[in-house]
Amino acid sequence: MTIETLLDAVRFNDDGLIAAIAQADGTNEVLMLAWMNRDALRETLETGRVCYWSRSRKGLWRKGETSGQVQHLVEARLDCDGDAVLLLVNQKGVACHTGRRSCFYRAMRPEGFVDTSAPEISQEALYGR
């Protein structure tokens, strides 16, 4: 089966995107959710380096291109409806732009939001700002 045949099975939304959940291989920790278009998913499958579609930049975004926090694909899994993809990845460093390992650090509790983890690295160290 070719990559194009695999991509033909994906149900991209009206904007040409699919939700992509990055999960740490081995620990199953959910790291982040981002979006992929056909080109991003194709590049990820071809190269093994995870590439997303940046809705704000309106372009391909290779995870770690500015921060060095690269994701390497172990396996991509399409859900039963074909409209979401799970990426099992080897994460170099942190996944979140806030410097945390995971983007899912804000617990919603009756008393309000509670941070469940602290940044492991500063945004200045990640992005030089």
TrEMBL record:
Keywords, comma-separated and alphabetical: Amino-acid biosynthesis, Cytoplasm, Histidine biosynthesis, Hydrolase, Magnesium, Metal-binding, Zinc
Molecular function (Gene Ontology), one example: phosphoribosyl-AMP cyclohydrolase activity
Top EC group: hydrolase
Cofactor binding mode and count: Binds 1 zinc ion per subunit. Binds 1 Mg(2+) ion per subunit.
EC number, as in UniProt: 3.5.4.19
GO cellular component terms, A-Z: cytoplasm
One Pfam family, short name: PRA-CH
Keyword Hydrolase: yes
Reactions accelerated catalytically: 1-(5-phospho-beta-D-ribosyl)-ATP + H2O = 1-(5-phospho-beta-D-ribosyl)-5'-AMP + diphosphate + H(+); 1-(5-phospho-beta-D-ribosyl)-5'-AMP + H2O = 1-(5-phospho-beta-D-ribosyl)-5-[(5-phospho-beta-D-ribosylamino)methylideneamino]imidazole-4-carboxamide
Task performed by this protein: Catalyzes the hydrolysis of the adenine ring of phosphoribosyl-AMP.
Subunit details: Homodimer.
Family in the record: In the N-terminal section; belongs to the PRA-CH family. Belongs to the PRA-CH family.
Protein name (Swiss-Prot/TrEMBL): Phosphoribosyl-AMP cyclohydrolase
Biological source species: Tanticharoenia sakaeratensis NBRC 103193
Record lineage: Bacteria, Pseudomonadati, Pseudomonadota, Alphaproteobacteria, Acetobacterales
